[in-house]
Amino acid sequence: MASEDVVGKSRGDTAVTTIVNLAEEAKLAREGVKAPGHQILTICKSLVAGGVAGGVSRTAVAPLERLKILLQVQNPHSIKYNGTVQGLKYIWRTEGLRGLFKGNGTNCARIVPNSAVKFFSYEQAAKGILWAYRQQTGEEDAQLTPLLRLGAGACAGIIAMSATYPMDMVRGRITVQTDKSPYQYRGMFHALGTVYREEGFRALYRGWLPSVIGVVPYVGLNFAVYESLKDWLLQTNPFGLANDNELHVVTRLGCGAVAGTIGQTVAYPLDVIRRRMQMVGWNHADSIITGKGKEALQYNGMIDAFRKTVRHEGAGALYKGLVPNSVKVVPSIAIAFVTYEVVKDVLGVEMRISD
C-alpha cells in the first residue's frame, strides 16, 4: 500500500512539474520571450532553410558554374572553351552529361553549410546592427538603411566564406580536372587530404584575401539590394505588385535577379584572381591551366596576380567567364532567396530577413 502511495505521489509530482513548465512557457510567450528549446528549434529551421536554398540554387546552374571556372583559369595559349554555348557543347561532347555536373557534389557539400551560415549570420548581424542603430538614434521604430544592410551582408559573407573556404578551394580543382588529367582527385575529402599533405595547410586558404575583399561588395550588395528593393516595392506598390503587404514569387525572383547582377559585376575580377591563385602549386594541373608547352604563371599574392593577369592577357581577362556567370548568377541568387523564404514559411520560422 505504501509503495502505491509512493508511485502515485511520483506521478503526481511529474504531472505538476509538466503543468508548471507549460505555464512558464505560456507566460514567456505572452511576454514575447521564447523558451530556450523554441529558440534552438528556430535556429535549426533557419539553418535548414538556408542550406536547402543553397543546394537547390547551385544544382540548377551547375553546368554554367563549371564552365565559368574553366574559362577563368584556362591558358590563352591553349583555348578549348570559347564562349558560353561553344563551351557547354564542348563539355557535353567530350565528357557527357556527367561532365556538365562535375564538381557539383563537392560544390553542394560546400554551399549547403555556406548558405546556411550566410543567411543565418545575416539575420543575426542585421538584428544586432538594427538594435545598435535604434539605441544610437533613439528611434524605436527605426529600420535598417541600405548602407546598414550592406554591412550586415558583408559580415555574413565573410563569416560563411571563411568557414567553408577549404572546400571551395578543392572544389575549384575538382571542377577543372578532366578524364584526361594525369592526376585525379577522387572526391572532396581526398582532395582536402592531398592538398594538405602535398602543399601544406596554408594552401587550403590560398586566394582567401581576394575572396574576403570580393565577398564584401558581392554578398553585401546582394542582401542590401534585395531587401531595399523589396521594401521599396511594398511601400510604393507600382503596378499593383504588392498584395496584402506581400510580393508575388515572380516579383521576388526579379528582386533577387537585380541583386545578383549588381553584386557579381562589381566583385567579378576578384573572383577570377581567387580562382587563379587556388591553382598555384598544383603540380598535376591539367593542360587547360598550363597550356601545351607553356608553364602556368606563379603568383606571389593578390596584387601580383592582378598585375600578371593584366600584363599577359589584358584587362579583359579579369572578366573571363562573366557571360556564363551572369547567366548563372541571376537565376541562382533569385532561386536562393525565394527558396529560403518559401522553406522558412513551410517550416513555420518567425524570423524574417527584413526584421
Automatic annotation (TrEMBL):
How does the protein associate with the membrane?
Answer: Multi-pass membrane protein
**By its UniProt entry, which InterPro entries does this protein fall under?**
MCP, MCP_dom_sf, MCP_transmembrane
From the UniProt record, list the Solcar repeat ranges: 41-128, 144-232, 247-346
Compartment(s): Mitochondrion inner membrane
What biological processes does GO assign it?
Answer: organic anion transport; organophosphate ester transport; transmembrane transport
User: What do the Gene Ontology cellular component annotations say?
Assistant: mitochondrial inner membrane
Highest taxon above the source species: Eukaryota
Keyword annotations for this protein, in alphabetical order, are:
Membrane, Mitochondrion, Mitochondrion inner membrane, Repeat, Transmembrane, Transmembrane helix, Transport
Give a yes or no for keyword Transmembrane helix in this entry: yes
Q: Which Pfam families match?
A: Mito_carr
To which protein family does this belong? Belongs to the mitochondrial carrier (TC 2.A.29) family.
List, alphabetically, the PANTHER family matched.
SOLUTE CARRIER FAMILY 25
The name under which this protein is listed is: Mitochondrial carrier protein
Origin species, per record, is Sorghum bicolor (Sorghum)
